[in-house]
Amino acid sequence: MEHAVTVFGEALVDDFSTRQVVGGAPFNLARHLAGFGLPVTMITRIGDDANGRLVRDEFARFCLREGGLQTGAGEATGSVHVEVGADGSHRFTIVPDQAYDHIDSAQALAACQATQPSIFCFGTLAQRDPRSRAALHAVLEQTQAVRFLDLNLRAGFVDETIVFDSLQQADIVKVNEDELQQLFKWYCHTCPDTVNMECISVDTECRAMMHNFSLSALVVTMGARGALYLSADGAHVADHGTAMDGTFVDAVGAGDAFNAVFLLGRLRGWTMEQTLARANAFAASTCGHAGAVPQDLACYGRWLEAWRRSATSDELFGAPG
Does the keyword Nuclease apply (predicted)? Predict the structure, then answer.
């Protein structure tokens, strides 16, 4: 039986005025994992409104379990207003007091207990309100799952006390370079330049921080330069990325795509070298289509088949790492 994953956090709609696109980093992750065939429970909350129906449609399209999907009467489904500049740049306004700020603790606990996941994923944006933060803590207190934290700091919603608490709750933490620099400023003696992630000072400060927060692993994504994995047992694995095929469209959700394959690799027992290479390749591929997730869900099967062909039977059926 495939190991289950539970994802906690925001499902929302990016409002471009002329079009609406379903998103939210946790929901992107949940959809990718479901696309790869994993049993996924997404704990979130929406309103009974047009945007909520868009989110429900995505639950149905990806065959996501609805046990964790809450609906709040009179609440607004999460939204982000997106303004596109003349130069193609994007300006985001994250709307406050949305349905995902009101996640109910009892319902969240019931959803997680019903599936007993192997991995529990969470971030920081959905903790901005005490109600959803309390629901997350209620689940964290009872779950025995490995806790995967995608820090995913958003400008205007960076609360160091929430970050500190989240790091204490996590087993594995994933950050990008900018987020790593912020953690260095908060929690380390020095702020080494992450342009060279292989330098001794970066490794030293990362491991000191891992020790202080009792982390089993730290994953750092570096865009086109790939990703780095450090573990508490001394592992240091780097993959320097894969050039994308075709035309670059946007990098929306590339980190969420990376996370999905990283977790898939953990559950399937891939080596870390395989996992990083495959996660980077899949993340790069998402830059070739608009939005965070593909319209063609058959692409997940094609990726799985390509990985199957490249794997030995031991790699494919090995025990979870």
Answer: no
